[in-house]
Design a protein that fits this description.
Layout lengths: L14 E4 L3 H11 L3 E9 L6 H6 L6 E9 L3 E9 L18 E4 L3 H9 L5 E8 L9 E6 L5 E6 L17 H7 L5
Parallel strand pairs: 1-4, 5-8
Antiparallel strand pairs: 2-3, 3-4, 6-7, 7-8
């Protein structure tokens, strides 16, 4: 067998988050953020075996429901709801091991924050910040939390960033994708 010399993966297929209430999360992502529901699955369980432990690394009596959503041009978002005897119900902080947030691009960060801040249970942390120096000078960002406490970040970057002067690596930018597809937003 010849060893593979190229990349082992080609792209991120999806990101996944466990939520306390699957219906609430689907509603939030579809109504507040414009995601599209692709499918639902479950309940999935193995009442007499250990399938959920072997395949998902969770308690053998776990019951799983999930939904897959399409969020924008490049993100598939999988949402899980678990019913399980040993479930921890505290969300990790960004500083905790396993801490996380989902960063979402917006063309108009001011309007997006205003719209989301008006939704019940959404909390904007601080306010919109602009990076003034360093590799992403000019970027604007803000953290917020969903009604169940999941952390989101909204970002908007200028067309050119300082780090681009020193490397050929470019971050994904939905404006480039839209230009390639002939879409103007």
């Amino acid at each position: 067998m010849t060893p593979r010399t190229g990349p082992l993966v080609g792209a991120v297929h999806h990101v996944a988050y466990t939520v306390p209430d699957l219906e609430q999360a689907i509603t939030f992502f579809t109504e507040a953020l414009g995601a599209e529901l692709a499918y639902r699955a479950g309940p999935i369980s193995d009442p007499d075996g250990d399938w959920t432990t072997r395949h998902l690394g969770v308690h053998p009596r776990a019951v799983v429901r999930l939904a897959m959503l399409r969020l924008g041009p490049a993100v598939n978002l999988e949402l899980f709801e678990y019913a399980v005897p040993d479930q921890r119900r505290a969300l990790p902080l960004n500083s905790d091991w396993g801490g996380h947030h989902l960063a979402l691009w917006t063309e108009d960060i001011d309007a997006a924050v205003a719209q989301l801040a008006a939704r019940p249970g959404v909390r904007v942390l601080g306010g919109i910040d602009t990076v003034t120096d360093g590799p992403i000078a000019g970027a604007r960002w803000v953290y917020l939390t969903t009604p169940w406490g999941m952390q989101l970040e909204l970002v908007h970057f200028p067309d050119e960033l300082p780090f681009q002067e020193t490397t050929a690596v470019r971050l994904f930018d939905p404006r480039r994708l839209n230009q390639q597809q002939g879409v103007r937003r």
